[in-house]
Write a sequence for this structure.
């Protein structure tokens, strides 16, 4: 059974850290907490704002962002390359004072 699971899941195993993409587009790390071979999905958990959060993600999405975990039989030709998150540079906001030294109205 283990060989069968490995042939489908590759290096995606319980306790492994993976990158995930949130519904708002953010990509961050999470820990695999459950595996469903039949539905080819993975349950992951992460800690955010003092709470443990989790979600179920399709294996295809996990392997798209974590191609190093793909099984050797996995066809990477049909997977879009993952885009790594690159933060935008921050901009300074300058507020000009109104004549007389107060804030503009």
């Amino acid at each position: 059974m283990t060989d069968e699971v490995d042939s489908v899941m590759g290096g995606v195993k319980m306790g492994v850290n993976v990158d995930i993409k949130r519904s708002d587009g953010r990509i961050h790390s999470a820990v695999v907490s459950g595996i469903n071979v039949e539905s080819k999905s993975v349950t992951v958990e992460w800690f955010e704002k003092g709470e443990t959060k989790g979600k179920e993600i399709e294996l295809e999405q996990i392997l798209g962002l974590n191609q190093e975990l793909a099984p050797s039989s996995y066809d990477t030709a049909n997977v879009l390359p993952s885009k790594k998150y690159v933060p935008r540079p921050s901009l300074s906001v300058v507020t000009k004072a109104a004549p007389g030294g107060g804030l503009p109205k």
